[in-house]
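Quick start: what a row looks like.
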Amino acid sequence: MADSWAFLLVGHKNPSDTDEASIRLEPSVLVVSCERLKNLFLVELGLDDQWQGSVNLMINPALDQEKRPRLTAIYCPNGWSYNLELPKTLPTRLLVRALVDTLFLELANRGADSQCAEIPFWLVEGMSAQLQSFNLPTFILQPSEQMSGNRVKLEGLDRVRNHLRRHAPLSFQELSWPTEADVDGADSELYRSCSQLFLEQLLQFNDGQRLLREMLRQLPDHLNWQTAFLSAFRAHFQQLLDVEKWWGLSYVDFTKGDLAEPLMAENCWKELQDALDVPVQVHFAAEHMPAEAKITMQEVIAKWSPADATPALERSIDELRFLHLRISPEFRPLVDQYLKVLTGYLNTCRDPRVEWASGKNRPSILSFLKSDVARQLDALDKQRSTLRITGITTAAITP
């Protein structure tokens, strides 16, 4: 390929803590990064290096950096090979994700015939986050990059803990079937945090590493990864419902220390604001990347159709329910009122008995409903503003 390079990926140790920073790929530096990644990956799974497949890494300057890396698995009678096409520049997080996906596929397909293994996205995303969180930030190298030794910090599960303090966790079902927003959209950070914690909890089993390796070995023999997962982890889970229950208990155990400590007044106001604001992407011009912005729930209800507004409403409701457990007592009635208004509107929108048009040239029931909900939310926002002032003042003068 013109202006591109190909390399055989072989295997050595250490992630960048700048997940969203763009990295410029250079052939010699990329090879070193891949060697370090491979060693870390093998250590995490408790494996020796028994590399079999070949991976061709192709840096394609013509590939749009907004596009995801493209991984192609090729089967031949003598084994599998892989082509991973990368843009010249891309975020570190996406590079690590693509390389981890490739490593998992090579590992799972070692004993496969012509049926390629299906790697669950939670496993790829969870391992990517795990490797970047628990290793020194020299994992992915930038050309001409220098490290400052006295500023090294390992994240561990700090990012996961901080994120799950503010958001209700995804269910195992939601982890199993990620949406576009989970992959690279507004919910990607929550999905990444939950995936990392889910993988970490699996590895906490005494036989966690061995069972994860067994799951990967069985993947090509099953049409879906869930069957291989249950077969490998049958000593712990008899059915997917058992996984869901275990995941719920694991999450509560992980966060129970946080739930026991009420938020400070200013943090209460901020997290309530975050739960009610709706993140959106604003497109100013076709040739420019969209900009991140936030709009109010009133704007969503007024301008969006009930179907389009449903995901935003569900997200806010989930976060408000989780916040109810941790928020200080003086804020709790306000949270309950927001929940009542938003769940009432959402349930009404879902009610098949409601007719959204009540006749030609007459205002629709939906218009009246939207106006009423907006009016209630405006009143609650005023209470919230007042509570912020009094709450912060009280906290400031409390000895």
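That is the whole record. The chain has two domains: 22-143+155-259, 265-397. The domain at 265-397 is CATH 1.20.120 (Four Helix Bundle (Hemerythrin (Met), subunit A)).
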